[in-house]
Amino acid sequence: MPPDVRQASLGRPVIALVAGEDSGDVLGADLVRALRRRYPQAHLLGIGGPRMVAAGFEAWHDISELSVMGLAEVLTHLPRLLRLRQRLGSRLLALQPDLFVGIDAPDFNLGLERRLKRAGIRTAHYVSPSIWAWRQGRAQGIGQSADRVLCLLPMEPAIYARHGVDARFVGHPLADAFAMQPDRAAARNALGLPADGPVLAVLPGSRGSEIERLGAPFLDAAQRVAVAIPGLRVIVPAANPRCHAKLQTLFDRQAGDAPGPRSAVPGPRLLSGHAREALIAADLVLVASGTAALESMLAKRPMVVGYRLAPLSYRLVRALRLLKTDRYSLPNVLAGRALVPELMQDECRAEPLAQALLALWRDAPRREAMVAEFGELHAQLLGGRDGNAADHAAHALAALLETEDAAR
Question: Within 13 Å and on the Cβ side, how many CA atoms surround 295?
């Protein structure tokens, strides 16, 4: 670090950021670019991935060191993560940045933010934890960590306000990435699909553990639907090479197991990436609960959502009564009702998934109403604002920097 790194002013701030997982790298890269537009000489450093580095970020550690999901999975990595957080916190306290921004990864970032805030460093948390699902009382504790919370969902600031926490809705970056009327013809052309004919997109998750839990029932359900809908084409975008390999193994196994009429149905087509094009090209989507369900909503495609937690994680969630909602997918959370079918845990099996997909396929008015409401929810995520979510996030962070600068 250059010796003049702490010679910061409003035009040359030192901003530390810590992102977790691939989605955090995407958010962080957009934020880094937005902050650089506002502060071209800023020092931006911490933990990030290749996209953040390409945008002009100095990575002290790679983002992969934080990419752990699920209660059971986190427990096995907990000692290493705690050591990393301790070392990182000490290094940041020695540096005394003008602002620290935790990007998602709340289990790691909130404790770090709390330590830094107590030492007088301004802190912000970008992407609110799912307080609407996991105890709204957590909002007060999050306020003890972050001077400001940047929210992606419009209903979140009101929850924080009830606990006296400064939270701002900045819009959802994915809402910026999708057109209000996606071009299905262009997406089908890009994937080499015919302009006509039914298409089912199957997205069983972007992590190896999700493929292991959801891949088989999702593919089995898709095969059952393909038997019932003549001419159906099934496309399965793989998020990364590891998921591609796992899905290919499932494809091979399914091809060997399929007896009778199912063996006469064309098998699914495995794609390397192209998830967004697959969603836009589809007439119907079977998707894991998570970001892909939101993307399906923004693509304006009728969907059925399924998900399974790791068995130990699920038992812990149930035993500790951690989950405080009966809605799991973001389309249903945003709508405030059961807009899309959700089949979770023990219900997430091939036959129920297939029946839910077929019921939706056979009910055209329901699909049309669903798509119309998806458009309304998309508009809510945009919030009627000018500029993109990253620019609004950078503006909210700049206000913290200006407050700190004025206090000096």
Answer: 23
Mean pLDDT (whole number) for 156-179: 93
Paired residues of 15 in beta bridges:
44, 99
In the predicted model, is pLDDT for residue 392 greater than 80?
yes
Residue 304 has pLDDT above 50, yes or no: yes
Q: Does position 404 have pLDDT exceeding 80, yes or no?
A: no
Query: What's the 3-state SS for 156-221?
Result: HHHHHHCCCCCEEECCCHHHHHCCCCCCHHHHHHHHCCCCCCCEEEEECCCCHHHHHHHHHHHHHH
Q: In the predicted model, is pLDDT for residue 319 greater than 80?
A: no
- Quickly list DSSP for 377-405: HHHHHHTT-SS-HHHHHHHHHHHHHHHHH
| Of residues 285, 290, 289, the one with CA closest to residue 357 | 285
Using alpha carbons, select from 22, 112, 20, 126 the residue that is nearest to residue 66: 20
CA dist 27 → 24, 290, 406 (Å): 5, 16, 28
